[in-house]
Design goal:
alpha/beta
């Protein structure tokens, strides 16, 4: 749970730096350099999604981050045998489990917690606990699915803010924000940390920061997009400044 007066933590996802590198299949830009600049600008953790098809980041990126980065590393991954073995071998500080479809451009929704998935999660999270890896679940703000949360095997839920981001500024914004707020209360009732991510920008983030108990946001695409024009340190610093300035409103 966030401590009173503490700013929301910022995770910076550097996948799209790797995407740009893969466009040429060479070495630049280096995701590790992006992680270093994000740290200098005030990021609290680095997020990296290693996908089955290695379309952007890969295990070498994760290995180099673990060897040299001075920030915690959050590995986004599907719960597959291959990815589990990678996590156990390289031991990121956190894993965030996400659904993964081969043809999707980006993560399209939250996890579906079927009985089979929950059994696999229990075995996986047990091994993570032995290695000191914290486990987070990427979930839609769906009360039925959140009712299945296994609070004994995970410590955090990252709420999928994509639908809210798409509705921002429209007649559906209020409804989507209410869904997130209610979902956050359900997550907190399980004793889990509330995080948020997907589609967040400088423009919709202030609204998200009003979610009660929010402890962490993870942002990638909008920061890297702005970094193309402004530079990475400036793009990360913009978000970090917004988070710090939000303290006054959250504390009142």
């Amino acid at each position: 749970m966030p401590l009173p007066g503490m700013p929301v933590r910022l995770g910076v996802n550097i996948d799209h730096v790797a995407t740009l590198r893969q466009a040429r299949g060479e070495f630049d830009p280096d995701p590790l350099a992006a992680a270093h600049l994000a740290r200098l600008a005030g990021a609290d953790q680095i997020v990296l999604h290693v996908r089955e098809d290695r379309r952007h980041a890969n295990e070498n990126d994760l290995r180099r981050l673990r060897e040299t980065a001075s920030l915690p590393v959050n590995l986004e991954m599907a719960l597959t045998q291959e990815m589990a073995e990678l996590a156990f071998a390289l031991v990121p500080d956190r894993v965030t489990l996400v659904p993964e479809k081969r043809n999707e451009t980006t993560t399209e929704g939250g996890l579906v917690l079927t009985p089979d998935y929950l059994r696999a999660l229990d075995a996986f999270s047990g091994r993570c606990a032995d290695l000191g890896i914290r486990v987070s679940l990427f979930m839609d703000p769906d009360p039925e699915m959140l009712g299945r949360l296994p609070s004994a095997s995970v410590d955090q839920v990252e709420l999928h803010t994509g639908p809210f981001a798409r509705a921002f500024g429209s007649s559906r914004e209020k409804e989507e924000f209410a869904r997130l707020t209610f979902a956050a209360t359900l997550v907190a009732r399980h004793g889990l940390v509330v995080a948020a991510g997907h589609g967040l920008t400088l423009y919709n983030l202030p609204r998200i920061l009003a979610i009660p108990g929010l402890a962490e946001v993870n942002i990638g695409h909008s920061i890297i997009s702005r970094a193309v024009l402004l530079g990475l340190r400036e793009a990360v610093s913009e978000v970090r400044t917004l988070l710090l300035h939000s303290l006054g409103g959250r504390a009142s």
